[in-house]
Automatic annotation (TrEMBL), chain A:
This is Anti-sigma factor. The chain crosses the membrane at residues 82-102. The keyword Transmembrane applies. Keywords: Membrane, Transmembrane, Transmembrane helix. It comes from Devosia ginsengisoli.
UniProtKB/TrEMBL annotation, chain B:
Pfam families: PhyR_sigma2, Sigma70_r4_2. Belongs to the sigma-70 factor family. ECF subfamily. GO terms for biological process: DNA-templated transcription initiation. This is Sigma-70 family RNA polymerase sigma factor. It comes from the Bacteria. Keywords: Sigma factor, Transcription, Transcription regulation. Residues 100-152 form the RNA polymerase sigma factor 70 region 4 type domain. One of its GO terms (molecular function) is sigma factor activity. Residues 9-61 form the PhyR sigma2 domain.
Length: 267, 168
């Protein structure tokens, strides 16, 4: 070994110099007292550091630092956590199961019921209005017809109920059931004694299946029908017989023509 | 698994010793060791059997210590005065380094010099392993050790003294 580096000196002091280099190092130190002094000081520093802090390593280890105990505690904590997870899974499972079993109860309410309820609500709200009973008045019935037809994506003419003693007040557009196009048209008629009848029309339901229903609903008489083009709900608080007369007149006028052939209603 | 816990157990005294020397506070040191062990137990799956458990544990401990240092940065350091023992054993020796003086000197070292110096001198960990634990190249470790020792030498006022030959 021709040259001894500082790192080698330190390694020797730390007892980390490889064995084969020891002889050369010792010869070097013997010839260089300063270097030997350095090494000795290094070693004294190390000794002092070990004297300072070494005793801690001989102390009894506190119980909380025993790996077995720590592992057991951690396992217990994990089990508790898994317990909660398991409980949550069971609860969610029960909820899903109950929901699935109870599904027919929620599905049992047919679309017609929703449409009738909407129609009755709209009737109750707007027949009570005087100045704002309708959005578009009957004096512009051509516009009303075209506007509502466009919005409902179907041809809608205003039924004429003069024979039954009713005149058209006007109509409005309403938000409707999403599965029936999301829009509904309400037409309002009034007779000489200010009795009002409303007609609630939406686009056809997705199944386009025909359906008919008479019902009493919150004190109102209701006649509902559906076909391949529209759904229509007639709502009024007239006596049942009079309601049937009005409703059948509306039905005749709105279903005139071959519905399935796709020709427009005359109205 | 039990084998693994046994391996941990044999390392606990050394971890405590190193943690105590780093923090100079018995409670902080043991908290550090407990955190280190818990982390090791929860991550035993990540342990590579090719590496030494000891080096892995010291790496975890050192990272936790550095994080704690960062968190308490500028919060002020507390030095437990009881931590500096009045040891009499080496005192009789000529040329011994005053221990209290040395303890104070170590405290003034930059953290990265302190952690390297203590790994090598106190724990007797081989240079290569120490460099791995700290996460630096071997050359960097050597230069940190050199600087740490030179600083201690200056701080403890022992540039040279007689009886060098008598000290092994």
């Amino acid at each position: 070994m021709s040259e001894i580096t500082r790192d080698q000196l330190m390694a020797y002091a730390d007892g980390q110099l490889p064995e084969p280099e020891h002889a050369a190092m010792e010869a070097f130190l013997a010839a260089n007292p300063d270097a030997a002094a350095d090494v000795a000081l290094h070693q004294r520093q190390s000794d002092a550091i070990r004297t300072l802090f070494g005793p801690v390593g001989a102390e009894a280890v506190p119980a909380r630092l025993k790996p077995r105990r720590l592992a057991a505690e951690m396992a217990r904590r994990r089990t508790r956590n898994w317990g909660w997870v398991a409980a949550a899974v069971v609860l969610v499972g029960l909820g899903l199961g109950a929901g699935w079993i109870a599904r027919p109860l929620f599905d049992a309410r047919p679309a017609s019921q929703l449409l009738i309820a909407d129609a009755v609500n709209a009737h109750a709200v707007y027949v009570a209005e005087n100045r704002h009973a309708v959005e578009v008045g009957s004096d512009d019935s051509e516009h009303l017809s075209g506007w509502l037809s466009n919005r409902l994506d179907t041809r809608l003419r205003m039924p004429d109920l003069a024979t039954e003693g009713f005149t058209l007040v006007g109509g409005r557009l309403l938000p409707g059931e999403p599965h029936a196009g999301g829009r509904a048209a309400q037409l309002m008629y009034e007779n000489a004694t200010s009795d009002r009848v409303t007609i609630y029309v939406t686009a056809a339901l997705p199944d386009r299946a025909p359906g008919y229903e008479f019902a009493s609903y919150d004190g109102a008489e209701v006649f509902y029908w559906a076909n391949a083009r529209i759904t229509c709900t007639v709502v009024g608080t007239l006596p049942e017989e009079q309601m049937k007369t009005v409703a059948s007149s509306i039905y005749r006028q709105l279903t005139e023509g071959d519905v399935n052939a796709g020709r427009p209603y005359r109205g | 698994m039990n084998d693994f816990l046994d391996q941990l157990e044999t390392c606990v005294p050394a971890l405590r010793r190193y943690a105590r020397a780093l923090t100079r506070n018995a409670d902080l040191a043991d908290d550090l060791v407990q955190d280190c062990l818990e982390r090791a137990i929860s991550r035993r799956g990540l342990f590579r059997p090719t590496g030494a458990v000891r080096a892995w544990l010291f790496t975890i401990l050192l990272n936790l210590h550095r994080n704690a240092l960062r968190a308490s940065h500028r919060r002020g350091e507390t030095v437990d005065i009881d931590m500096v023992p009045e040891l009499s054993t080496p005192a009789a020796q000529p040329g011994h380094i005053a221990l209290a003086e040395l303890a104070r000197a170590i405290d003034t070292l930059p953290p990265e010099q302190k952690e390297a110096l203590l790994l090598v001198t106190l724990e007797g960990i081989p240079y290569a392993e120490a460099a791995g634990i700290i996460g630096i190249p071997l050359g960097t470790l050597m230069s940190r050790l050199g600087r740490a020792r030179a600083a201690l030498r200056t701080l403890t006022g022992h540039p040279a003294e007689p009886h060098l030959r008598t000290v092994k």
